[in-house]
Specification:
Layout (H helix, E strand, L loop, with lengths): L3 E2 L15 H11 L3 E2 L6 H12 L3 H21 L8 H13 L4 H20 L5 H8 L16 H8 L7 H16 L3 H5 L6 E3 L4 E7 L3 E6 L4 H11 L27 H14 L14 H14 L4 H8 L4 H5 L8 H6 L6
Antiparallel strand pairs: 1-2, 3-4, 4-5
Helix pairs in contact: 1-2, 4-5, 4-6, 5-6, 8-10, 8-12, 12-13
Length: 345
């Protein structure tokens, strides 16, 4: 197959917004080489409908963009154009990622992206279908399910109360941790929340969040409310309803910058306070304690303290209850406890 390619634009960074198909198409058109003589549109155009359907969330699309950009940079270093890639090239890329120290789960995600990408290009005639099948046959590394370490109840309590509440940052961090532990949300859902996403009724406070797959839900805040109120009042943001709820601290330490915290900000504070209270955040034979550890801790704690599986599924926002079941640590007393619920007399 003959194609005429212009240089790969690997220096193009992902834009702040990939929520629309037009934004996705414009970005991919700048990132990928223009292809002529195939008669099937462009490499970028072949990916847009699939990507917008398979990855509905803006954050997911940004992750895809980053993974694709890194792969194209690898090809550029190797002198290979995207349409010349073979299954062996993918296998060598997998080995390069492994040697660079990437986690098996990260490598598996990146390879899944490439399989989907080349399947679309194969369907549109940019890549020979036998090559697509060879790429599809490149195996992902084995990933241990649910390998993120959680915290014990005692460790979680220590982490929650580690921030110094006499400081502005401490008030923010305590409120942030409390919201995570009460809602079991993914880090992106909390980090992207605005002040106006807090809702109240006669008795309770709630946080309206957008979760994986653009699913919207309302999380009850319960005991996190006093910490959240204290932070909002100290930060002076109660009337900035369109502004970010959790914000980076300004260099002067006396006010916050009006932008959302990012995932790395949250990861850093979890590591910082974990070390401060004596938690081994870099656990051997594990992925290490990180932001997802807060979600796992909350889900596991709810299950271990007797919350019904179907209720925890709703709390966690799991589409499949089998995902929730993976968080439960079976106990010898489970069968006896279940028997005591039987009301046949």
């Amino acid at each position: 197959m003959s194609t005429d390619l212009v240089p790969i634009q690997t220096e193009v960074l992902a834009p702040a917004d990939l929520s629309s198909a037009d934004a996705v198409g414009e970005y991919l058109a700048r990132l990928l080489p223009a292809t002529r003589g195939v008669g099937q549109g462009t490499l970028a155009g072949a990916l847009v409908p699939w990507l917008c359907d398979a990855v509905p969330s803006d954050n997911g699309r940004k992750a895809y963009a980053t993974d694709l950009r890194q792969f194209l940079a690898h090809l550029d270093r190797c002198g290979i154009s995207p349409t010349e890639v073979t299954g062996d090239d993918i296998r060598l890329y997998k080995e390069a990622m492994r040697k660079s120290g990437l986690a098996s789960s990260t490598i598996a995600r990146k390879l899944s992206l490439l399989r989907g990408t080349y399947e679309q290009w194969g369907k549109k005639g940019f890549v020979d279908w036998h090559t697509v099948q060879d790429i599809q046959a490149a195996e992902s590394p084995r990933v241990e399910k649910n390998s993120t370490p959680g915290l014990s109840q005692a460790e979680a309590s220590k982490l929650l109360h580690a921030p110094d509440l006499s400081t502005l940052q401490g008030k923010r961090d305590h409120a942030l941790l409390f919201v995570f532990f009460r809602t079991s949300c993914r880090v992106s859902a909390v980090a992207n929340a605005n002040v106006g996403h807090i809702e109240r009724d006669d008795t309770d406070w709630f946080l309206r969040v957008t979760e994986k797959g653009n699913k919207r839900s309302r999380k009850i805040l319960l005991e996190a409310v006093p910490a959240l109120k204290d932070y909002i009042e100290a930060a002076g943001i109660e009337n900035d309803r369109e502004g970010p709820l959790f914000r980076p601290l300004h260099r002067n330490k006396r006010e916050f910058v009006r932008r959302h915290l990012d995932r790395r900000d949250v990861w850093s504070l979890v590591k910082k306070y974990g070390r401060q209270v004596g938690i081994d955040v870099d656990r051997i034979d594990s992925r290490g304690v990180g932001v997802h550890s807060l979600r796992k801790t909350t889900i596991t704690n709810a299950l271990n303290n007797g919350a019904p599986m179907h209720q925890v599924q709703e709390l966690a926002g799991h589409a499949d209850i089998r995902t929730t079941q993976g968080y439960y640590m079976r106990k010898d007393s489970d069968a006896e406890a279940a028997a005591r619920h039987i009301q046949i007399r």
